[in-house]
Fold this sequence. Notes:
By secondary structure, the protein is α+β, with helices and mostly antiparallel strands. It is built from 10 helices and 18 strands. A hairpin with a 4-residue loop joins strand 2 (about 50-55) and strand 3 (about 60-65).
Amino acid sequence: MCGGSSMDKDTYQARIKRCTEMMKTEGCDILLLTKPSNMQYLTGDGRLCAYAMITTDAKVAMGVPKTDIEDVKQGAFFHHIVGFEDEVGMIHSIAHYFEHFNLKEGTVGLEFTFLTQSMMGIVTHPHAKPKDVMPKDCTPILSGLRLVKEEREIDLLRQAAAVADIGMKAAIEAVKQGITESQIAAEAEYAMRYAGAEDFWRTYVSSGPRTGIAHGLPTNRKLETGDLVMIDIHPIVNGYSSDICRTVCVGKPSNEKQVAYNLYLKAQQASIAKAKAGIGMVELGEAMHGIIRDGGYGEHIFGPPIHGVGIDFEESPLPPGHAFFHGEKEPPPLPVNVVIAIGNCGLYADSWGVRVEDTVVVGQQEPIVLTRYPYSLEVK
Length: 380
């Protein structure tokens, strides 16, 4: 995540206004953000080694490496920007803003679920934060803000999904005996870069017995006839992500693998069909898990099948049990224009696995599937 806004000034100001309303409800006098995606959402700039501060009266400030000041100013809709050279400078710049905003007591919202121990030490350092300003987890504020996507966000997510489809096409067309997992990943990433992706979250490619791994990073293992190949890709386009996974076979799949694949696809499609306003995350996940269990593979499921997609490829809404579910409030029934990935759980047998996943917009009457690459276990 880096600098570069994909929204206009009015959008960011409207987000800040909603943010300040939630801050007052949650009892936060100021936010001190370091998570790039949260900074990107509220300021248009999500660069690393930086922070953003937001007050309840909608003042916005950033601290960045001094080398980045002019770059930040080019796209910023706010004027409070300071630079620092090192961690000590970062601490003093945070203290400067607390003094500038005249905040000597109260609460500061911090991203407890994101901050490392060392970064927590910096933002709560006695030379940074006034002693009477108490830290408070602001994760629910940011998760709530980012839950429902604006129309412009959905447009950007649709663009990211189109690039994901291009990457999946390139990856599957490369599948053949003798090619390595890493070479397949390279084909996908090259195609996505060429189509407009500025970055990726991890590209997962696993084959043969490695498809029994939930999230297998690519290796130099060469594909063999009869192998299943699991490809899971996540391009970032104009700051927004997509998530698509397909499983294919090198040659003709065995009957056992085909039956398991058909069952998994049936379960995933049934869950997608239920992605309408008013359904709960647990209910939506159970729609998929239930079919897999009824098909005799209940012991081979790993984790919840659903997570949110947006600036991050895994974000709110997150179901209980998800690896990133740390402090977020369990989401209420899903409203329209929440964007989720469906199919994340996988079906993992003893020496192989299958997974199919798509990015989906929760609709009022019908869901909208953004990733459109065809489903087929056999490579056409």
